[in-house]
Amino acid sequence: MQGLENWTAATPEIFLAAAAMALLMVGAFRGDRATDLIAWLSILVLGIAGLLVLTTPVADAYADLFTVTLFGRFMKVLVLLGSMTAIAMSRSWLAREQVWRFEFPLLIVLATLGMLLMISAGDLMSLYIGLELQSLALYVVASFQRDNLRSTEAGVKYFVLGAVASGMLLYGASLIYGFLGSTGFAAIAKAFGGGSPGIGAVVGMVFVVCGLAFKVSAVPFHMWTPDVYEGAPTPVTALFSVAPKIAALALFVSVMMGPFRPILEQWQQIIVIISVASMAWGAFAAISQENIKRLMAYSSIANIGFMLIALAAGTADGLRGILIYVTTYLFMNVGVFACILAMKRRNLMVENIGDLAGLSRHQPLMAAALLIFMASLAGIPPLAGFFAKLYVFQAAIGAKLYVASVLGVLSSAVAAFYYLRIIKVMYFDAPAEPFDAPVERGLGFIMSGAALFTIFFLFFQNPIIGAAEAAAASLMAK
Hints:
Blueprint: H1 2-9, H2 11-30, H3 35-55, E1 59-61, E2 66-68, H4 70-96, H5 103-119, H6 124-142, H7 149-180, H8 185-193, H9 199-215, H10 225-231, H11 234-240, H12 243-256, H13 264-285, H14 292-313, H15 316-341, E3 344-345, E4 348-349, H16 359-362, H17 364-377, H18 384-398, H19 402-428, H20 441-456, H21 461-476
Antiparallel strand pairs: 1-2, 3-4
Helix pairs in contact: 2-3, 2-5, 3-4, 3-5, 4-5, 4-11, 4-12, 4-15, 4-21, 5-6, 5-12, 6-7, 7-9, 7-10, 9-12, 10-11, 10-14, 11-15, 13-14, 13-19, 14-15, 14-18, 14-19, 15-17, 15-18, 15-20, 15-21, 17-19, 17-20
């Protein structure tokens, strides 16, 4: 009976692994002729995995190495949605660059499998296996345009710094095991809750936090983000900005509110400092950026800061705020990168903010969509980004993190400058050479859907808030 429960709990992951192997065989026998087929099948496979996630029962499986919670299910759905969208946005760009090969969607499927395993980890060892499965696939896609110097440089930087972060996390896990005698989340929580665990275990926790902070691009472990965002192929940057970020954040939250929750007072100030530093650096460093992909890298650093301040609250309201924020962030970021992928002249990509000059005259619908996303990222009401920040700051204030909340609001005001600057360039600067028209149908559909979600979030937020509250309560109850 226990074996059946194990299989049932991990149905989405088992299905993804089997489907990836089947797609690999199709690609191996048919070669690049099957790339389009494999891409669409990959999207279908990820969609089916999403349905399986929604029907998976809440349970602990495989001797507590694997756990399913409502929180994890919420995050898994967002990860799968982000991966599906990234594959859908990739085809035209990669085909134009003559690097559209069947390995690309397959690598995203394998990376997504690692992300799902990360989210359901109930032990430091299963955590590490999921993290590395995700990372190894992402190292490859970051340098997928192997004849391009910037892409290969991005892949090498991501690999070297990622290996360092993974080493830190593994070293922290070994310290925790050495001093507490277990790598299971439940056993670690019991040891930390039973009195003083010893300085060695606390040092191990710090190393684990450092490794996880790297994966979410939090300051001071953010150094890889701008270079990788700029150098990686644009569809890969779009993927990096959503699915792996969401998975890493889910893992961060699960670890801090799981095994390390009994020592909340010890790590709360660390998270507050990381959060404030991320918000400030993401706001100020982006001001001077001219490349829109680098600007979005710093934007992602700032947004992680906002989410971490809700984590520092250590409450159910904080977790609810994170879930609502990450939902809106997914749609806003996907929409922005759909617009970036449509920035091309004479079939060549352009990435400078100045290239957007006069966009409102040449392509008013694309300009309107980008205006909506930038205004939402700036937190202007009544768009989705405003409510995301509202719930995050409500949780922080409820936890009496007043100084961090004030600094967060000030950082948000600074960040609004560079978001509004893009709007000013599109609507008020002298027109530059127009982009190729019309926008590809797939990108236009994604832009429109993301824009509608961002505008009308106010009217259908209640189901999302309800699901977020239930998911937060399930994690707090563990």
